[in-house]
Specification:
Layout lengths: L22 H11 L5 H6 L3 E2 L11 E5 L1 H11 L26 E6 L3 E2 L3 H4 L10 E2 L6 E2 L4 E2 L4 E2 L4 H17 L2 H20 L1 H4 L1 H13 L15 H11 L2 H9 L6 H10 L4 H7 L3 E6 L2 E6 L1 H12 L1 H10 L16
Parallel strand pairs: 1-3
Antiparallel strand pairs: 2-3, 4-5, 6-7, 7-8, 9-10
Helix pairs in contact: 5-9, 6-9, 10-13, 11-12
Protein name: TniQ protein
Organism: Asanoa siamensis
């Protein structure tokens, strides 16, 4: 009789899962805490696998469980139904194409895995290292003030921790993690472009980033800025990008009416009116060997793309209302 065919019973030693942990990592730590000879014994007891199981799966793989296998995992861990789903992302994906009449699981490739905060996991039962997914939310341990992707100490840069809280509130407000992540990705690309030429174009921000660079460990230079170095400014810009009223404003107003948008960004980044004027320029002047060159302003590229996407609805609106700007714009929900 296979282990997955035997009756499941609650294990004597329970292990608390880490938010974002892979199912394999959690099962291996649970097996280790209960002194099983091999972690694959417990993994194989969940259900019939679609391939051979080894302890090396923890580095790059996870498992998908059908409903019967999930019930067995809940029995082994002694947790109420549904609680593990809220912590282990792998359980959000049902085991499609698996038989339903027996406990079964499928081993799948897992991407964007990393180690959790070693300070947080130091006292957890089980000697094995854990693996967690890199979620849409940035990987930061507020308790120990560490950026987990690079294990950077944030003790002297509280503005990064504040930006992390604002990012969390932004995710809660939009209710769409993937779309919000896309806006942050675009904001990060724009601010990175600013940072590379900031020594000549935006000296106040350049000085701020330079100071932050000196306080952070690791390599975060402005010629190739890391996501961590510009994270507070990227989150601030993403907040504006996720505001549907401002998206509608950018998409619908005439180009000469964009001033308020630039002023909003300048105010959010604590910059002067000169910075707002600079944002409105279509290109940035860069020093090159042998003279100067020009590079397209990344913010203007984002604006052009958004306005192009809504060009038809903008044209129809002004034709229908003869250009009277006091007429209400179309509903905001169209501009997400």
């Amino acid at each position: 009789m296979k282990t997955w065919q035997q009756t499941a019973q609650q294990l004597p030693v329970q292990v608390r899962p880490i938010r974002g942990e892979t199912t394999i990592s959690y099962v291996f730590r649970l097996a280790d805490a209960n002194d099983l000879a091999r972690p694959t014994i417990l993994l194989g007891a969940l259900g019939r696998p679609t391939r051979g199981l080894t302890q090396f799966l923890i580095d790059d793989y996870d498992v998908r469980l059908n409903s019967l296998a999930l019930q067995r995992l809940e029995t082994f861990t002694g947790t109420p139904p549904g609680r593990l789903r809220s912590v282990l992302p792998g359980l959000h994906h049902p085991g499609d194409a698996l038989p339903e009449e027996i406990p079964a699981m499928r081993v799948v490739k897992a991407y964007n895995l990393h180690d959790p905060c070693d300070h947080c996991t130091a006292r957890l039962p089980g000697r094995r290292a854990a693996k967690v997914y890199t979620l849409y939310f940035p990987v930061l341990c507020r308790k120990h003030r560490r950026w987990l992707a690079t294990k950077t100490d944030l003790t002297h840069t509280p503005e990064i921790i504040t930006a992390h809280r604002r990012h969390g509130r932004l995710l809660a407000a939009t209710g769409d993690r993937e779309w919000t992540y896309q806006q942050l990705h675009v904001a990060n690309w724009i601010v990175s472009g600013w940072a590379r030429s900031s020594h000549r174009t935006i000296p106040r921000l350049h000085e701020l980033w330079q100071t932050r660079d000196n306080l952070l460990t690791g390599r975060h230079n402005l010629f190739n800025p890391s996501n961590l170095l510009i994270y507070p400014e990227a989150v601030a810009l993403a907040e504006i990008f996720c505001d549907l009223e401002w998206r509608r404003h950018v998409a619908m107003v005439r180009e000469r009416q964009m001033t308020n948008f630039y002023k909003r960004i300048a105010a959010r980044l604590n910059q002067s009116g000169d910075f707002a004027d600079w944002l409105s320029r279509p290109s940035m002047r860069l020093r090159r060997r042998g003279g100067f060159d020009w590079m397209a302003n990344p913010l203007q590229q984002w604006i052009s793309q958004l306005r192009h996407t809504h060009q038809k609805i903008r044209t129809e609106f002004y034709e229908r209302h003869n250009g009277f700007s006091q007429t209400p714009f179309p509903e905001t929900r169209h501009f997400k």
